[in-house]
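During the reporting period, our protein records have gained a structure token line. A sample record is set out beneath this paragraph:
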Amino acid sequence: MSLQPLLDSQVEKKLSPEDRKRVWACQVQRVREEQFQVEERKSRLIEEREELAKKLSAALKEQNSILDEIEFKKKLLQQRKRQLELEEERRRAEEERRQRQLVKAEEEQRRKIEEERKIRAYKAGEKEKEVLSPTSPPIPERGIFLVMKDAGVHEAAKKISRIEGQVRKYDLLEVFKSQKDENKMTWYQVLLSERFISKREKKVGWSPEEKSFWAKNKLLAWVYPGDLSKINTTKPLKLNVEEIQFTGIKLALPKKNPFYEVIYEITNEYIERTMGWVNEQEGIRRTDKNMDEMMDLLNRLAHTLWPIKIQNDILRGLIRTGFTAEQVVLSWGPPDHVNITKTFLGTHEQWVYGGKPFPKAYVYFEDRAVKSWSF
């Protein structure tokens, strides 16, 4: 119950001093309580305000952090994109550089070949004979020729032709081609020998500067080979000034500086091959073996004690009744399949050469010896 209506009223004036003290004490207590509540609310509001300020500050920091992270990711993305673009540009530049190098190498190779073949003779003014590059040997036929007796190698596929060289028994020769003569006898073209030839030749050219200029500046001398009238379409050689000789002759083209005649040397290198023909009667022609395989066969036969007839049959790729399994393998090679049958009479084997469903040949063994064969 509020005591406010009693204060400063006629009723208060009628109260005794003690009652009035009690009334005012209650009022003071009430005011103090209200002030305490106000202070408490004020403190609570301040705390809530500070808490909200902290939350707002944290939210702003989080917002700034998110914005910074987004910006950082944008920069990373831009850097990655730029890096990819740079890598693509470098790849394209490298590809273009490699292509230019290939084109340049091809052009340089063509230039060297043309320069060596079309250099003009000194003072003659005549066109120099073209130096024909050595022709590559024809692609050899498959197989080799095994010489079985000392024989001569002929210049042509004829017995009356000149003899180019001699071969000895068991020489192995690579066959390049075959040909029949007028008597229907087969001849084989083989390689007798080859040698590397290197020749130094003197050539004439023109230098745009005197010898003193190149020596003074320590530069390679530029030399235009061949005819001076074709200098606009000729690329210069770059040679050591000590390797060329200035003749003292000086010529000048219209509207151009004078050129000085020089003599220089080049090296021509080629392989000289000697080919010849051997008669089929001089040895064994094997189309199913190469040089290494035939050499291995000869070495393996050399370690056996078999009769010469058997060894010659094996060298020719033949088999005979009574051949052992080892002899058949050396002659025909290992079989593709083996069928074995055992009976009270002994062991029977069938060697199959060639794949299914159409085998090429069969070899039949009884007690590890060839009994027969069929195709």
User: Anything to note?
Assistant: The mean pLDDT is 83. The two ends are 136 Å apart (CA to CA). Residues 304-374 form a domain with the Beta-lactamase Inhibitory Protein; Chain:B, domain 1 fold (CATH 3.30.1450.10).
